[in-house]
């Protein structure tokens, strides 16, 4: 969980998001203490924004920890930046919320479009372990709370570019949310 990351990092940590469900969860659960410690595009960015923003944040703050929250779809958009992180020995920890779908769009198609899915399932499943080995970043697989906790702990201790492949159920939702065209006082809770 995002809380686990916050519990294991110090108050100087910079959190960066890509675009999608993980971005909404980070906005809800990251506990940042200082201005300029939560970097997100808000509603003004595209998938793939996060890794470049994490690299810029790490270059600008070489003595701070940078955590990059991303989804598997967003990571695919700009995964070449893993090579940049390795080339410059930037100890960015990328945490991929891996649900095999474009999560936010999938959630909307489930909730508002009668499960008429269009181009939200990632048919090509990337092997993150092989990718990590190929570019030279540390790799961790996390499919339980305990393995996630251990992955975060080890990635923080090693202070190297790292990728944590955190498995998430594809039906996990960002809640609460407001349906399109509805007033703010009609919040969806399930």
Provide a compact summary of the structure.
The chain has 190 residues and is of the alpha/beta class. Helix content is 39%, strand content 17%.
Characterization of the model:
- By secondary structure, the protein is α/β, with parallel strands linked by helices.
- The chain has eight helices and eight strands, in the order αβαβαβααβααβαβββ.
- The strands form two sheets. It has a six-stranded parallel sheet with strand order 2-1-3-4-6-5, with helices on both faces.
- The mean pLDDT is 92.
Strand order of the main beta sheet, please? 2-1-3-4-6-5
This entry's quaternary arrangement is: single chain
Largest sheet: 6 strands, parallel
Low-confidence stretches: none
Number of strands: 8
Strand content: 15-25%
The termini sit apart by 19 Å
Structure annotation, total helices: 8
Q: What does the radius of gyration come to?
A: 16 Å
Helix content: 25-40%
SS-derived structural category: alpha/beta
Mean pLDDT: 92
Q: Could you say which overall geometry the principal axes of the C-alpha atoms support? A: globular
Order of helices and strands: HEHEHEHHEHHEHEEE
List the helices and strands and how they pair.
Elements: H1 2-8, E1 14-17, H2 21-29, E2 38-39, H3 49-60, E3 66-71, H4 72-78, H5 81-87, E4 93-98, H6 103-112, H7 128-135, E5 138-142, H8 145-158, E6 162-167, E7 177-178, E8 187-188
Parallel strand pairs: 1-2, 1-3, 3-4, 4-6, 5-6
Antiparallel strand pairs: 7-8
